[in-house]
Write a structure and sequence with these properties.
The protein is an all-alpha fold and 170 residues long. The chain has helices at residues 8-35, 44-54, 61-81, 85-99, 102-105, 107-110, 120-126, 128-169, and strands at 111-113, 117-118.
Amino acid sequence: MEIKPVNADNGTAYSSLKLLRICVGIVYLWFGALKFFEGLSPAEQLAMQTIHKLTFGLINDRMNLIMLASWECVLGLLLIAGKYMKPALAFLFLHMVCTFTPFVFFPSEVFRQAPYGLTMTGQYIMKNIVFIAAGLVLWKAEQEKRAVNKAIVYEENSFEGLEAVEAKAG
């Protein structure tokens, strides 16, 4: 595997990926924080109805909203910090699957005319395909970063091994 030095092209790509990661994190943190304060999030009622349905009403709606707010804020902070990216992205994808459940549970709230005439709520949900795409880009970048790091470690270990052999022989 050829390891490319950082140059203008892949340095710009790295900066772009970092900006994408941070921007998605900011949106998650912002939207999550709004849910901690009753009445501030435009998605509050829909989120409570959806989670109520998903949990079969076993958990108090307000508690569900606090758990969702916590999930979104933690996810946002992880993305902003660039820490634990694989688990963070896995939770992002799980969250995204859940955000589309109102299309099944509450079609009258998301469609004016199915399947293309979306209400404002439907449009709010549909914009999440951008987050899914961003998540896929970040997932792929994380895989490539890990592959490069493994290759560097392998090369360093191989080089150290060669030095040791030469030292013993010399």
